[in-house]
Amino acid sequence: MSGLPTLADDGGIEIPILNNEPGVFSRRWPGYEATDDELITYTLEKLKKYKSRYERCARLVVCITFINPRSHKIHQASESIKGYVSDQIYSKYIKGYPYRALFIVDGVNKYYDELTKQEHEQYNHRRKALEKLRFFEMTDFVI
């Protein structure tokens, strides 16, 4: 143990009709470290028999953990963004984030990577989880 304050996060996409797969195994869902294109194809293949938005509903989930070495407290917060998996690929998706090429955000009906800066701030699940952690006692983490 380093004795230093530690902040870590992990996340993924959960698709209820697929028993919340892939979850935190999003990058290794096919059983190996897949490329973006392989993950997009794999996801579309898994969902090809499901046509409705209800069947294709999904959520982007993040869990953030803060460990305070002085107080020995562990704080966790999680948040998610609801939406669904499109059967079309967003052509301008950001490499390294394959599920954003398929994920349409509820409320704005846009691909995640299509969100404006203002919309991203409104829907950003990582920011919301970090805001939850702000309320925990972290004043004694200074080294």
UniProtKB/TrEMBL annotation:
<dbReference type="InterPro" id="IPR002637">
    <property type="entry name" value="RdgB/HAM1"/>
</dbReference>
<keyword id="KW-0378">Hydrolase</keyword>
<protein>
    <submittedName>
        <fullName>Uncharacterized protein</fullName>
    </submittedName>
</protein>
<dbReference type="GO" id="GO:0009143">
    <property type="term" value="P:nucleoside triphosphate catabolic process"/>
</dbReference>
<dbReference type="InterPro" id="IPR029001">
    <property type="entry name" value="ITPase-like_fam"/>
</dbReference>
<dbReference type="Pfam" id="PF01725">
    <property type="entry name" value="Ham1p_like"/>
</dbReference>
<dbReference type="GO" id="GO:0047429">
    <property type="term" value="F:nucleoside triphosphate diphosphatase activity"/>
</dbReference>
